[in-house]
Every structure is written in C-alpha cells, then in structure tokens.
Amino acid sequence: MIKQKTGVCIDCDNGKIVPLIAKRCQYHYWKHRDSLKKKKTVEETKSSSPQKDAMMSLWEKSNKKSEISGKNLIKFYHDYITGKENHQFFWCFAHFLSKKTYTKLKCREDGMMLLHPDEHYLIDNMTQKDRELYEKKNNCSFKIFYDKQALRKKEYNIDKKYD
Ligand SMILES: [Zn+2]
Description:
Layout: E1 6-8, E2 17-19, H1 26-36, H2 42-46, H3 50-61, H4 74-81, H5 87-90, E3 93-95, E4 112-114, H6 117-125, H7 128-138, H8 143-157
The chain binds zinc ion.
C-alpha cells in the first residue's frame, strides 16, 4: 500500500498537517488543476459515475442551498454545467464519513450533505476554532453535519443498516 504524503498545503499555508497531493490539500489541488485546465468538452461534462449520480440526484431534490448556512449554491452548478469550472460544484457535497473506510456510503445520497465549498473546506482542512469563527460570522452551525456524521457511523457500525 502506498502511504499518502502529509504536510502543510502550500496554498492553505496554515501550519496544519493534512494529506497532500502534489504539495497541496485535496481542495487546493483540484482548484489548481481547474485553473490550468482549458474548457471542458461536453463529453467530459456528461461522464458519470455512481458517486456523481448520487450527487446529482441529491442536488435535484435539494433546495440548492447549504444545509449549514443556507447559502445559495446555484452559481457553482451553473459554472459546472457551462464547463467554466468543474471543481467547486463537487465541493458542494460533503461525505459524512471517510469514503475509504465507509465504502457503502460513498455512493448513497444519505451518506452526504449539501453545503458551501468554503464549509466543506473548513470541515476537511481547518480547526474547530476556524469553524467557530465562521459560525459566528455567518450565524450558522456545523452541528448538523457532525450530528449526522455520528448517526451514520452508528448506523453503519452498530445497526449494520447498510449491509
Ligand atoms: Zn490547501
């Protein structure tokens, strides 16, 4: 097994040790990749996977707003379908639990939640203190995410709901 490299992301530059891909955290890696990439072809936009299908299905049923802050997410969808930007839209979906460990939740709508990419980034790469600052500034709470995370974990490990 290849051990993933960890360190401080050159774009976050916040001193926090995170898994790295080409010197960047996952968020900044894809952001960087998108900035280099030219416009996507229609073919690429259409390509699907079970995970992407679950995300799109969740998106269709949603009110297109972050469950955490109520922030509107339509512009990310627009940028995605017009091929302007690919990365941010998929950061509007956060899995409650590690996709590697909790594999059966990876492609399930109830295994993920709709939120603003900044909020996803705060969950993945930042500290509790950073999240509290954001909560104060935006009058919102990350509790809904962590409550659902705890519930899914219990359902997965104790209730064996997804077997
Ligand atoms: Zn980063």
